[in-house]
Amino acid sequence: MFPVAPCCRERFCFVCSSGQAEFLRLLGTPFVFRVFPRKTNGIFLYLCQPLPAVPGRDPAPHRFANPNRPFEPYGMKEKKTIRLVVLLILLLVAVDQTVKLWVKTHMTLDETIPVFGQWFYIHFIENQGAAYGMELGGRYGKLLLSLFRIVAVGAIGWYIRRLIRNGAPVGVVVGISVILAGALGNILDSAFYGLFFSESTPLQVARFVPWGTGYAPFLHGSVVDMLYFPLIEIERMPDWIPFVGGETYTFFSPTFNVADAYVTGGLLYLLIFKLRFFR
User: Fold this and answer.
1) Rg of the chain over CA atoms, in angstroms?
2) Which amino acids are annotated catalytic?
């Protein structure tokens, strides 16, 4: 519990978190709490002013206001935001998985389909690692990466729940939800594709097989990548440029998937438009 709020002239006015406000209400106190959410240094606190309860009247309609009201963890606004987040994540994951399943069942490994001149190709590859084709070597490296993704998704989900509960702007919640959808999309690849797909090869398209008889065990499947944008290609870089001097250089050379684009797009959106919220 925080000390008496310096901005409040009432004797029993104090500042607390949302969880502490719920705890006070559950104690069965004879007071009605008028709760004012305030954001200080990026943290939502609650300015609570206890008032005498008036029979038959709720002086401050709020989910903490009436001690006799059953506990409601979320208000109407929070419930709408939760529904929006769930629908958004399901839609984004569905788009990502639809594209990957089509590529997996219609293209051989390393096959390329031109889409827009020499600037955009559907190029089917599989990787054992992180976003944009970056790999973490070995079987145990793949397992660690898959477990890390699962923990990250859980942490992001918990953080989204906390943001909604504390009344964060919808734009911030949506941006982080897009990142969650991207992480979840790649988890599905590594967790399940190896269980019900045969192996993709340069000569044979993958096919569905009985569950558990696929090309890899649980959490060891390959992530499907297919988006390739070689926007600029330079035949020979100047020798004085570090790392790429004297070599052919292509921008943008990594092949990625829709889920990777979600993660990158969500991060860029938060950095460009919502950075002030996190300060």
Assistant:
1) 26
2) 225, 260
